[in-house]
Amino acid sequence: MPRLVLTVIGDDRAGLVEALAGAIDEHGGNWEQSQMAELAGQFAGIVVVEVPAENESALRAAMQGLDGLLEVSAHPGADAAASVDDRTPMRIDLLGNDHPGIVRDVSAVLARHGLSIETITTGQRDAPMAGGRLFEAHLVVRVPSGGDPVAVREDLERVASELFVDLAFDAD
Asked: Membrane-spanning residues where (predicted)?
């Protein structure tokens, strides 16, 4: 069965996930995986679905019918076997005073080492004692076979000291 990667966005309100799930179910689709969140008044996410080949076109058309409620784009996804790999996961947690360039500098290190970002979650919060804003990021990255996690960590620690942020690592 074909897999589709759906990107969705719409004004946040009750019933968005239900409408999307209903359309998928009506066409024999199976909701496999998703990441969704409300950000700045918008509800956005990515959903991986598997759908019978004979229903794919009808499901794509149904997704267009959600316009006005949700904007949905359907993209072909890799089959389940192709998405399994032997890269080693590494979790990175970052916390420091908020300022421009943190994500750019950290992601540049990851790209330089050939790491793929599996997930990234970022946010801001008030600094409890000093005032101002703190920036936090939580990443799960994949170190390719033959990659050097120690070198990645050393490079990230160097950048963290330049950015005045704290890092914590957890290799699975």
From this structure: none
For residue 22, give the amino acid letter: G
Residues in the chain: 172
What is the C-alpha to C-alpha distance for residues 102 and 123, in angstroms, rounded to an integer? Answer: 12
Contact 133, 97 (CB under 8 A): yes
C-alpha–C-alpha distance, residues 153 and 46, integer Å = 29
The per-residue pLDDT for range 68-102, each reduced to its tens digit, is: 899 999 999 987 665 556 788 999 999 999 999 99
Q: Are 77 and 30 in contact (CB under 8 A)?
A: no
Q: How far apart are CA 44 and CA 46, in angstroms?
A: 7
Which neighbouring-strand residues pair with 126? 133
Q: List pLDDT tens digits, range 120-162.
A: 999 999 998 878 999 999 999 999 989 999 999 999 999 999 9
What gap in Å lies between CA 139 and CA 118, rounded to an integer?
7
pTM beyond 0.70? yes
Query: Which CATH number characterizes residue 122's domain?
Result: 3.30.70.260
Range of the domain at 104: 88-171
Same domain? 47 vs 28: yes
Buried b (16+ CB within 10 A) or exposed e, 28-42: ebeeeeeeeeeeeee
Taking the C-alpha atoms of residue 105 and residue 9, their distance in angstroms, rounded to an integer, is 28
